[in-house]
Amino acid sequence: ELYTSEVSAGLDSNHKAFSASFIALTPHGTVFSTGVTVEIPYNITSGASYDVVKTADTSSTVWETLSGVTHTAYSDTVYVATVSITSFSVVTVVELATASPTSFSPTTLAPTQAPTIAPTIAPTTGSPTISPTVTPNTTAPTVSPTVEPNTTAPTITPTGSPTSVPSAAPTNEGGVVSYSVSSTVTFSALDISSFDNTTFGSSFNSSYISQIAASANVETSAVSIDGIASGSVGVTSSVATSSYSIAASFSSTLTSST
């Protein structure tokens, strides 16, 4: 049911008052292949005549007078108008401005029988869908986000000149001569807290060692990370090799990169 203020259409010159509540049958515009029977209770005034009218929806400004209406006494002051409609719309009963004979059925409804709105056939456009009210679970589930660390090591670009080819005598342990070339690489875009993630740290170290080894043309076992400093993250590493030419070549490569 709707209030008068909710319906745009007003009374025309042939009608002087609304005599029943507005019954809104939705969804508006749904058309039936066979008429739907609607029963509308309304209050009567002695000597008055009544029409059943409908409008397409609450925003429409035109009432259409329906034909084939049957008026049945429910009590001394209340009647029920029965009419067949072919589309969902807004329906009500109005009093005529000039009284004219109105056909009333002598049948009196039992006082306990409530007026009903009973479609006689399913609409061709499908039955209206009634969505049940669902009380949601207000407890939000705990979702543990999956952290996938960036395992791609940043491009290695030394910010300072690495240690040059050793000018002092190389180390000699147990008759094995070894040369060592050290360098420090700074990653300004990398935060030291990233290494709190052990998966990231392990992946970074592995990728870094692989790149240094490839650049120095040595096995990865010859490369060691000597320290990782905070701030603009600086990674200090050294390459140990028994080949002077490899040490010299790698030192030259690092020098040309700065």
Order of helices and strands: EEEEEEEEEEEEHEEH
Computed over alpha carbons, the radius of gyration is: 45 Å
End-to-end Cα distance: 82 Å
Q: List the uncertain runs.
A: 140-156, 158-169
Q: Count every helix, treating DSSP H or I runs of 4 or more residues as helices.
A: 2
Give me the count of strands. 14
Oligomer: single chain
Q: What is the 3D shape?
A: rod-shaped
Helix/strand-derived class?
mainly beta
Q: Residue-averaged pLDDT, rounded?
A: 74
What share of residues is helical? Answer: 10-25%
Largest beta-sheet characterization = 5 strands, antiparallel
Proportion of strand residues: 25-35%
Give me a quick take on this structure:
This protein has helices at residues 198-216, 244-257; strands spanning 15-18, 23-24, 31-43, 50-55, 64-65, 70-73, 78-87, 90-96, 104-108, 117-118, 171-173, 176-186, 223-229, 234-241. With 258 residues, the chain is mainly beta.
